[in-house]
Amino acid sequence: MNNFTDLQSQPPLLEVNNLETAFEIDGEWHNAVDNVSFQVKPKQVIGVVGESGCGKSVMSLSIMKLLPKGIGKIRNGDIKFNGINLEKLNDKEMNKVRGKDIAMIFQEPMTSLNPVFTIGFQLSESLHNHFNISKKDARKKVIHLLDKVGISRPEKVVDEYPHQLSGGMRQRVMIAMAIACEPKLLIADEPTTALDVTVQAQILELLQELQTTNDMSIILITHDLGVVAESCHEVIVMYAGEVVEQTDVVTLFESPKHPYTQLLMQSIPRMDQEEEVLASIEGIVPSLKNMPRQGCKFVDRCPKAMDECRSITPQLRESSPGHGVKCLLYETSWEQEGMKAK
Amino acid sequence: MSNVVDIQHKEQSPPLPTNHETLLEVKDLKTYYPVKGGFFRRTVGHVKAVDGVSFTLKKGETLGLVGESGCGKSTAGRTILKLLKPTGGSIVFNGEDITKIRGGRLRERRKDFQMVFQDPYASLNPMQMVGDIVSEPIKNYYPRKKAKEIKQEVMELLNRVGLPDDAYYKYAHEFSGGQRQRIGIARALALKPKLIIADEPVSALDVSVQSQVLNLLNELQDDFNLTYLFIAHDLSVVKHMSDKIGIMYLGHIVEIADKKSIYEEPLHPYTQALISAVPEPNPKKKKERIVLEGDVPSPENPPSGCPFHTRCPVAVDKCSTIKPELKEVKPGRQVACILVD
């Protein structure tokens, strides 16, 4: 956290420019991720927040090039990792990047582990794929990895099957698998959602520790604002496939600007405050087929919506240095903004 | 129900004094599941899911039960509703001991306590129209009631929980998670119960929808004069909803107090760890975190003495031998820890 200012000057590790990912529904292509751009600097932790259905996971699958073949594709934009355009890589080349340079932790540790292979087998798989390593050495390395992620008696667990482990331990195994080849970028998709708070605290602490020791960057996808506040440097707020707000973590929590971000923050019960009635966002995220083609996509649920919001599509603009907001309220001049906000 | 062990103790507890204020009194409640094994599938041990839980709940109050998964909070809720047979202890509802009632009398009592389930996707019948789902309990208890009257009542209920009129003729799959949970709430309200046990009612929902359902539950509590037993693992949600909070660990309540004391001055080491583990949406606040080591021990083979001593950061030698009782340390505050007095 403290080296945040140093981060700014470094060249980005991952660069996503105008990413558009679409899915085919009934013969038509609909954008699930729409014109998303952001950068991840080395050693930076970026949080991606938003409700379910807002495109967070599709975005991470696009970066990993793991979109379901045939029904999902990247329509536009490019993804550069360390200066290499991932779009241009063929499957074989991409396989060398996946798991080695960019790794991913999935949400459900039970379904992401294969029930019929031992933990040791599944962990050593990526080691064998990426390095020329003997079986004996791989086993040693696996035990070391399990120990590193805080699993007690790793020499036993190595020969056990996923069902023999608890939820927290399985998630640790997933993390061990992801960091096996010491990736430079880790994409963690809701890594703690299925876990209890005490286990969540353990996992977050572990991720933070690994991030500093391995000099890793992390994209942390979550819907829990508490998790974001505690572990991220920068935050991207997504709604309906678009980035609606983007800034550093302190600014976001101190002065959220987009009405969606504001409501999201007011709708969570807080431990440190007492509130009678929670704010809520009426309705749900529009489905891909019913997405408004014009104007702001949040307009139907926005308490501050104006007539213009339906016709003019807002752009992501810097409202102050380093603070991007996609909302018409901040595109007008100061005075008008003050009037409209009232 | 049949798979719950029946080790009913012989002595009948004396009739308890009826307090007008108290709606539910649970004393030393135990629910054990048998573990079958061996050639003849004999019972070889017990999973002590709930092992001596006691609390009282006043009319109009909300008690939150919190704990990690596997701590027995859901089993406790189901046992109180008599969906599971208690292995021991007593449940007094509205002045009447319902621990052992069965058949017609239990059926009659069931009108007064209802449940809202966790998974709004699995707890609604996909083959039934929403109107039928909500009117089923009414038809069941008042078979002579006119169909028109029932429909009227159900319509009002659906409106009250914030669903449109045409919801009556729709099926559950046509609704979003939050709306389904509203259907579940309407069904629970259909018989005008006194007590509602809500078992993780919002854990499957998105934050924005979660707040809608929490607000609705709060409004309904005032309107219908309901008493809630609110079971959840999310401490900030429980804090928002409850007057009193009970913290559970391995089938035991380790601390119970009003919510203010629990959050401002947690006394039991487990409560302290649990509260410190909740990530707060405030990036400037760096709090001291007590990170617990390891996992919850198996309730089939719980540790001796204090159930928490294997993970407790302040445990002393005595903790592994002496089983602490839940005792009042300050007015209205009960803690089960030998180090707290």
UniProtKB/TrEMBL annotation, chain A:
Membrane topology, as annotated: Peripheral membrane protein
CDD domains found in the cross-reference section: ABC_NikE_OppD_transporters
Subcellular location field: Cell membrane
InterPro entries hit by this protein: AAA+_ATPase, ABC_Ni/Peptide_Import, ABC_transporter-like_ATP-bd, ABC_transporter-like_CS, Oligopep_ABC_C, P-loop_NTPase
One of the GO BP terms on file: peptide transport
Keywords: ATP-binding, Cell membrane, Membrane, Nucleotide-binding, Transport
Cellular component, GO, one term: plasma membrane
Location of the ABC transporter domain: 14-265
One annotated GO molecular function: ATP binding
SUPFAM superfamilies named among the record's database cross-references: P-loop containing nucleoside triphosphate hydrolases
Superkingdom, taxonomy of origin: Bacteria
Pfam families, A to Z: ABC_tran, oligo_HPY
SMART domains: AAA (SM00382)
Chief location: membrane
Family: Belongs to the ABC transporter superfamily.
Protein name: Peptide/nickel transport system ATP-binding protein
Organism this protein belongs to: Thalassobacillus cyri
Automatic annotation (TrEMBL), chain B:
Residues covered by the ABC transporter domain: 24-275
Pfam families: ABC_tran, oligo_HPY
Molecular function terms from GO: ATP binding; ATP hydrolysis activity
Example GO biological process: peptide transport
Annotated TM spans: none
This protein's UniProt keywords: ATP-binding, Nucleotide-binding, Transport
Name of the protein: Peptide/nickel transport system ATP-binding protein
Organism: Thalassobacillus cyri
Lineage: Bacteria, Bacillati, Bacillota, Bacilli, Bacillales
